[in-house]
Amino acid sequence: MNYDWIKSRAVSHADKVAIIDPLKKTEWTYKELNIRAENLANYLVEQGIEKGDRIGVFAPNDVGVLDHLFAAIKIGAIFVPMNWRLKPIEIQKVVEDSGMEYIAYATNHLDRLSKIPKEYIKYNLDEPEYQKIVDPSHHRPFESVDVKPDDIAMLIYTSGTTGRPKGVIHTHQSYTNNIFNEILSWNIYDEFVTIASAPMFHVVGFVDIVLPMLMAGGQTVLERYFNPETINDWIYKYKPNILVMIPTMYYGIIADPDFSPELIESVEKFVSGGSAPLPAVQEAFLKMGKVLVNAYGLTEVPLVTYNNNELAMENPGSIGRPVLNLKHKIVDEDLNEVPQGEMGELLVKGLNVTAGYWNLPEENENVFHDGYFRTGDMAIENERGELQIVNRLKELIITGGENVLPSEVEAILNKHPLVNDGVVVGYDNPKFGESVSAAIVLNKQAQGIENYEEVLDEYMTKNLAGYKTPKLYLVLDEIPQNSVGKPDQLELKRMMNEKAAKIEEELI
Description:
This protein is an alpha/beta fold. 31% of the residues lie in helices and 25% in strands. The strands form eight sheets. Strands 16, 17, 19, 20 and 21 form a five-stranded antiparallel β-sheet that branches. A four-stranded mixed β-sheet has the order 2-1-10-9, sandwiched between helices. It starts with a helix and ends with a helix. The model has no long low-confidence stretch (mean pLDDT 91).
């Protein structure tokens, strides 16, 4: 079966500009994108790349990332977008786990490949030598191989909550079906324009926006790295009508000192993914007559739910309804379905769901049940069929036999005027197993207040049961983030346990 869809777009939208790279001052039409990929495919085959081989790309948002995906599709190879935020030892684990021996890189990130065998590192996407390989002024046609729907198209690595990198398998069938769902859910067509700011090693930045935009024949402006100082200028200049970003990026847009509502006037849909939108940011957008649509997906299932502006405005906490052709159910700890309105783990089943994890057969047995993928997220479904994510199952804090949802505590904590940002995690307690703690960033006007713990204790105990209130606070300048821009739960727990141990030592 032929899944070489960029070749089809090169015919239907041949001379339309598909990709703009303002920093490199380049732009590429759909015809040129296909030629670049065919030239690269010929080169890779000459280097010994065959069907099923893994090709890694270690670079920021760049047309070279797309070159390698499209070339891999033509060859039948497996594309691996690598997370350049990882540390060298983490990158080494990804390379060893995937078995990749062919890596393209960008100038700024070569030092992170220090633990990788030099013979695996091939060429720099930012150098003229690479441009000669893909130069569309000279076309070397390539006959694309036929692939099966369940052949692997890409591996996207995630550390999840365990800290161990896992290669999430996306077949040609699963990732293209996700693209179809994106196009249908957001009504994307060939007049659409977007700015790709989220990193393309992550499903939010790649599978959830760049690829759907290209398959629909739209136009994508590449931002190599998200820059809060220039993003509003770019939005005003290129006039995108859809943006897909993580919450902190939306905060960066409105926090810019020169921000004004007319800068984002062209944008019809703001999709927020990766984590729940910050309530203060949602409110700021609503005051401007705009709404952040809270979408939900995972590396394993890039788009699970969709929403529209009107429904999102009515119920800001909702993640919407499941996408077309996706079955779902909410189950208890025994995997039995719960009544509507009750909380349980969300399970999903459909053609856009991962085929499993690379080389982890035992994990695959545990994560699938009766054909459904276990998301590990606790959810509630209301009478209108709208879903709301309550918490990660693995992030539940069990203290003295009582379950505490960090999201519930965070919702109260982040409303206090002293707190600019707060993340709730459990820490080890020999008496209760775990106890509740909170890492907080204080507002500037509140910094220097010595009795902040007393103030917060009084506030939290008025609004929550005693076992749910934080027993330990840790003030930080900023919340540490993991490689995909989410609060680093593992690091926060380590920091909390370290502080708790110090306090214990002082009492002895």
